[in-house]
């Protein structure tokens, strides 16, 4: 059964939080995982679910050879002088 | 200022030197001075001291900011952060001086003052700022009507040649198409959601001034369907030396039409008997060689549009690959719905089947053209065949048997 918008956002956030530090996940990984559990979920809703997490600052896009979605964290390369 | 004996040698050549430019800026910007220092250090150490990527960006966007840090910030604190900002360029790179001044003033205030016009994707590249300056810089840019370009696994800022704005050979309005596509793909441009980068370039004619065929996953190249227009009197004028080849842009004062034009035609579809130039247009592959040499005598036809090609990229291990014809001809009228649909369908198929960091051209080769055409819902035209099939084995699918039983015709009349 398809998730409501609010539930979908939390579902995606949980997925990203659980993967943090273990696996880099991309927007398409999120979409595939959601559709596996909820095949009738609208793809556009998933896109906008990710957008909401990014726009509210709960998640950020990162780049490590490719673009990923992560929970905000301190940049490891930004050395303190 | 750091001592830079190795970099100083780069100023000794005949060409304008970026080192001279950097030194000029270094007088008022600590970051430029330290940039020179770290470059000199890299020349000595023979390694880079830069790391790129990470989490920096502006709120809501996953593209447009490329994080750059140095591994020896204690020695060069001015470039401790040296992030790049990509600003989406206007179609065809037309600017007013007022717009350029605004850009430079913003970057003088919030960055290193160093910029690159333009990067390979076509964006304006602002080189070097710190994390706290990103949001204020972005706010100032958007207030003036600018936006960030694409980076990472996103749809990259589309770019195009000057097209009909300045070129008589443009077979469609490249600038309009570039603008339309930029607007249509805003979500994908700012929010990386693909397996890897996805680039689009549009050239108005097969001369391909933006090198779309080699540099963009999606290459849209203007082309005509009917016959090349010939002015026989002008051909004679070229042969007689009254008109200079290439509009005078060669060292040759006079054109030998046979030796320089018809004999160099890659498909040998032209002939010249000293009086009349004949072209077998069915066998012309639109290379533009003859038109480029005799622009006053030959012009592209009037039934114009574009060819859509896919797949160019340059992986280090496999080597560079050019784009492959997917749609030999499509009309190109605003709002370019057919082109938009193809680009979106291809991206969906690629996102579904592509591996992480696999370009769409690599996927197309991995799964094969048959899977590609079935996946994106396009008819396979004959122009996609690069070489005749050498493998005698053909694996029939159930739908082939079904189509046979239903009386499929192989040659469309």
A few lines on this structure:
The complex is a heterodimer of chains A (81) and B (413). Chain A has 3 helices and 2 strands. Chain A has 81 residues and is mainly alpha-helical.
Describe this structure in words.
The complex is a heterodimer of chains A (about 80) and B (about 425). With about 80 residues, chain A is mainly alpha-helical. Chain A has one domain (about 5-70): Arc Repressor Mutant, subunit A, CATH 1.10.10. Helix content of chain A is about 50%, strand content about 10%. Chain A has a two-stranded antiparallel sheet. In chain A, α1 (about 5-20) packs across α3 (about 45-55). Chain B has 3 domains: about 5-145, Alpha-Beta Plaits (2-Layer Sandwich), CATH 3.30.70.2500; about 160-225 and about 305-385, Sulfite Reductase Hemoprotein, domain 1, CATH 3.30.413; about 230-300, Alpha-Beta Plaits. The N and C termini of chain B lie far apart (about 75 Å). The model of chain B has no long low-confidence stretch (mean pLDDT about 95). The interface of A and B includes residues 51, 57 and 81 of A.
